[in-house]
Prior knowledge:
The longest helix has 12 residues, at 11-22. A hairpin with a 6-residue loop joins strand 3 (91-95) and strand 4. By secondary structure, the protein is of the alpha+beta class. A two-stranded parallel sheet has the order 1-2. A two-stranded antiparallel ribbon has the order 3-4. The radius of gyration is 18 Å and the shape is globular. Helices cover 42% and strands 12% of the residues. Helix 4 (75-86) runs antiparallel to helix 5 (108-117). The chain has one domain.
Amino acid sequence: xxxxxxxxxxxxxxxxERWCRVRGHPMTCFFGSFSEYLEEVRRGERFxxxxxxxxxxxxxxxxxxxxxxxxxxxxxxxxxxxxxxxARDNVMAVYDACGQGPVExxxxxxxxxxxISQEWHYRPALTPEGEPPGDYKRYYTEENRRWVEEWDxxxxxxxxxxxx
Length: 164
């Protein structure tokens, strides 16, 4: 069975990204501002796009059962680390998106080369204006910055994240 791996991200940046992804999406029917989005998260009544990162990791994604945690800020290097760490006999099964079983077996070196050859990178969500969100700090008030500190205290302390 492949290792269970979860991803953690700077919480303040994570909420800006989530807001960009849910705003205007037909499944959420949400068109509010970033502050209104955080109010929805604070109420905790909408699932799952309006929940805290800690809740998503622990309850929805089962991070308590994860074999390892990847830091989003170093995503490529972390994926390489995971591949090299968990490759059995230097071979790792590559599973399809639904976890239906291995579709191919590759050596750790082949997987790393694949990521490099694909120029694999993350595509950020766009703001309602169609632009990347930029500096996450500009979206926060002092009050809702503190909300995130409370909601995701375990992530902030455990991984050394700061607002600055």
